[in-house]
Amino acid sequence: MNQVTQILPDHHKHCDELFVAAEDAAQRGDWPATAATFARFDAQMRAHFAAEEEVLFPTFEAATGMSGGPTQMMRYEHEQMRTLLDQLATAVTARDSDGYAGVAETLLMLLQQHNMKEENILYPMCEQALAADAGEVCEKISAMLEEEHA
Predict the structure, then answer these.
(1) How far apart are CA 38 and CA 48, in angstroms?
(2) How many angstroms separate the CA atoms of 117 and 74, rounded?
(3) Rounded to a whole number, what is the distance in angstroms from the first to the last CA of the chain?
(4) What domains are there in the chain, each with its CATH number?
(5) CB neighbour list of residue 120: distance below 8 Å, 6 or more residues apart
(6) Segment 125-136 mean pLDDT
């Protein structure tokens, strides 16, 4: 079974690929393709947030007693990104290329910073703190992410 430090970064890459595909379609003005690809990206991002917020973070917080630290910041950033995802959805519905591009640029910057913090700091901390429960945590996370792949 893959560990947290592999499953979630791999899913980051998957989401990044969908993000680029949706942005490319929007730049071409191919709104049916944009809508379809964005819907997949949005679902994957929300599944990723849910896997972290419902499985990884609570398990980490229970193991470490740390609830006001890095997981609190990640939840805050997830909320910021959900707002941006909602704005992108509005731009897709309105077929607003400029609006989509502007929000996408903001989301890209936030995603890059967020993913770097998770991959280089939080996930290794989780892996260390959850060593005994890592297999079970990874199974739950994988199941949540795979549901959205279907």
Answers:
(1) 15
(2) 9
(3) 20
(4) 4-149 (1.20.120.520)
(5) none
(6) 86
Residue 6 to residue 8: CA distance in whole angstroms: 6
Alpha carbon separation from 104 to 90, 111, 112, 141, 144 (Å, rounded): 12, 10, 12, 26, 25
Give the integer Cα–Cα distance in Å for 35 and 31.
6
- Distance (Å, whole) CA 105 – CA 87: 12
In this structure, what token pair is assigned to residue 14?
């998957």
* Residue indicated by tokens 């998957």: 14
pTM of structure: 0.92
Confidence of residue 44 (pLDDT cuts 50, 70, 90): very high
> Would the pLDDT of 1 be above 80?
no
Q: pLDDT by residue (tens digit) across 74-127?
A: 999 999 999 999 999 999 999 999 999 999 999 999 999 999 999 999 999 998
User: DSSP characters for 11-78?
Assistant: HHHHHHHHHHHHHHHHHHT-HHHHHHHHHHHHHHHHHHHHHIIIIIHHHHHHHH---SSHHHHHHHHH
